Amino acid sequence: MNIIVTGGAGFIGSNFIFYMRKKHPSYRIICLDKLTYAGNLSTLQPIMNQQNFRFVKGDICDRGAVDALFSEEHPDIVVNFAAESHVDRSIENPEIFLDTNIKGTAVLMDACRKYGIQRYHQVSTDEVYGDLPLDRPDLFFTEKTPLHTSSPYSASKAAADLLVQSYYRTYRLPVTISRCSNNYGPYHFPEKLIPLMIANALNDKPLPVYGKGENVRDWLYVEDHCKAIDLILHNGRVGEVYNIGGHNEMKNIDIVKIICKELGKPESLITFVSDRKGHDLRYAIDPSKIHSELGWLPDTSFSEGIHKTIQWYLEHREWWETIISGEYQTYYEKMVESRLYADKSLK
Ligand code: NAD
Ligand code: TYD
Question: Percent of the chain at pLDDT above 90?
Fold first, then answer.
């Protein structure tokens, strides 16, 4: 089985690659990643020279490069994680979100049509459903909830989902879509809530909470998301959407307080700052479809997952400190240079 994983140098994509290598060691995985600010090649270093793994630096919007890769590798499966993923950045500058998240999805699916594929899987988000009111805890997103987006990020992801469904209806491309709630865990880029708060707290810096911190997110440990995608790839029905979430709703402020407590840092670091524009109030997934059809349930509770995550950030300070210093962005160049150097010394 040949699988192209796009965006595999980012948070969820890298966790997915590690999960699949353990679960299906015979599968060949080809990671296609542009290495934007959010892609960190050092994450993949432990498997870089393994058999059955190949890293390719490239842009999913680049038709020529995508075509060349498909003609070389003839993938059986494509899992598309590659995206611009940060809501705040999409509010500042939407354009790149339209390019990567929408056009990139079309370019990948066109290559799938041209070369033939067993499955194209689109990694989407619960944010395509918009938000739910804070005073209606009885409401959840199901796969039938209308798309109703708030940010340029979520609008671009929803547009991609519609495009994926159109390729299924029009060209019978064998697609599936998953819409997951907020993930947390190792290798999460420290601009997102949980890793940002851990890194700032460890550096005794202010913890910026938007608005009153009352907004609710439904948090899932990243490995449980990876397990769900693996199940959808193997047992999911073509043309279907699967929501993924573990019924773990938390207010932002409560998460930040838990992080302070675990790290022994004072809550006086918490600083309320002006709210995000168009800030979604509450996300909450109804995961009954993936549970009843595919038997998926999360393995990791929030208390266990947040503890493991904080431990990971304590034990991997170098990983996030090089990101904060910006040094990680030179890693690819350094790696290429060291390879060139190694090749020369071989001659
Ligand atoms: P991330 O920002 O950590 O990683 C994105 C990766 O995509 C990076 O490695 C980046 O270099 C790569 N990339 C960006 N543009 C590219 C391009 N044009 N061509 C090739 N590679 C490119 O994101 P993440 O949090 O790992 O999210 C992965 C996917 O999961 C996204 O599609 C996101 O919408 C979705 N998702 C994320 C969450 C979450 O909580 N993080 C929840 C649900 C769904
Ligand atoms: P984020 O991690 O950006 O994920 P998303 O917006 O995709 O849900 O933010 C999670 C929540 O935390 C969201 O309600 C915004 C809030 N937030 C803060 O309060 N402070 C911060 O510094 C960040 C990055 C987010």
Answer: 93
Ligand 2 geometric centre to CA of 136 (Å): 21
Strands 241-244 and 207-210: unpaired
Q: What is the pLDDT at residue 345?
A: 42
Q: Which helix (H) or strand (E) holds 97?
A: helix 95-97
Pocket test of ligand 1: the residue of 4, 5, 12 to mutate, having most ligand atoms within 8 Å of its CB, is: 12
Determine the distance from the C-alpha atom of residue 35 to the mean position of all C-alpha atoms in its chain, rounded to a whole number. 14
pTM above 0.90? yes
Q: Using the structure block, give the residue that is written with the tokens 């059955």.
A: 52
CA of 11 to the centre of ligand 1 (A): 7
Residue from 14, 37, 81 to probe ligand 1 pocket by mutation (most atoms less than 8 Å from CB) = 81
The torsion angles phi and psi of 242, rounded to 5 degrees, stand at: -125, 125
Least Cα distance to 244 among 178, 301, 177 occurs for 178
Residue 254 has pLDDT above 80, yes or no: yes
